[in-house]
Amino acid sequence: MSDTRANRRKRRWRRPSIQQCHCCGQQKPFCWRCRCGFEICQSCMQENVWGMSCNHITWQCPDCGQLNGFGNQ
User: Fold this and answer.
1) Source organism's superkingdom (predicted)?
2) Taking the model in full, what pTM does it have?
3) What is the DSSP string of 22-47?
4) 22 DSSP assignment
């Protein structure tokens, strides 16, 4: 196996270290992210969780409607 193939397998995609919240517009080190690209910071998620989640295990993306997990189960 060539070195370039081995290097390609070892490289992984990394999320940017600073993300921008779609609700407040601020740049934060952590945002909840949907597969469609919607990002929401922790403080905005806490304010809006009443409308985005009914069980506090999953949340529904307001842009595309997909269900996403909080990672606690």
Assistant:
1) Bacteria
2) 0.71
3) TTT--EES-EEE-TTS-EEEHHHHHH
4) T
Residue 8: its pLDDT value, please?
Answer: 60
Q: What confidence tens digit (pLDDT) does each residue in 3-48 have?
A: 566 566 666 656 567 889 999 999 999 999 999 999 999 999 999 9
Domains of the chain: residue spans and CATH: 14-69 (3.30.40)
- Total Cβ atoms within 10 A of residue 51: 10
Q: In sequence order, which residues have a C-beta less than 8 Å from that of residue 35 and are 6 or more positions away?
A: 64, 66, 68
Partners of 39 in the beta sheet? Answer: 33
Cβ-contact 19, 33 below 8 angstroms: yes
pLDDT at 71: 79
